[in-house]
Each structure stands twice: as C-alpha cells, then as structure tokens.
Amino acid sequence: MYLLKMFRMAKAALRWILAAGIAAMVPGAAWACSSCMIGDPKTASTYFGMTLMMSSLPLMLIGGLGYWLYRHHS
User: Under a CB-based contact definition with an 8 Å cutoff, are residues 3 and 13 in contact?
Assistant: First the structure.
C-alpha cells in the first residue's frame, strides 16, 4: 500500500516537472496577453486590429444580407 502511494506521488511530481519544462520552452511572444498589452507594441496593435475586425464582421454580414435582400426584392 505504501509503495503504491509513493508511486502515485512520484508520477504526479514527474507530470509537474514535465509541464514546467514544456512551459519553459514556450516563446516569449506567447506570454503577451490582450488585456495587459505586455510585450511588443506591434502585438498590442495586432490585438486591437483583430478586435475591431471581429466586432465589425457580424454587422457587415447582417448589413450585406439586408442590402442583398433589398436589391433582390426591389
């Protein structure tokens, strides 16, 4: 029973060490987040541009459909 418990603890520790090793190999640009804008200023402007595009896309799709329906049935 004791050996089984020790084996499980060693297995869990190995998983944590492996996860920490993989996280250490992640490039620095991946640590930039959209809310705190840490990192490259180019990354911040890219996040802002994509936010604008994703916000306007549904409006453009609905507007385009409405325009198409108006032109098709007029």
Answer: no
Whole-number Å distance between alpha carbons of 12 and 19: 11
* 67-73: average pLDDT: 93
| pLDDT greater than 80 at residue 28 | no
Q: What residues have CB less than 8 Å from 34, skipping those under 6 apart?
A: 47, 51
One-letter amino acid at 29 equals A
28 SS3 class: helix
* Lookup: tokens for 45: 């402007």
| Nearest-angstrom CA–CA distance, 69 and 74 | 8
What's the rounded Cα separation, in Å, for the pair 48 and 53? 9
* HSE toward the beta carbon, residue 68, CA cutoff 13 A: 6
Token duo for residue 52: 């604008």
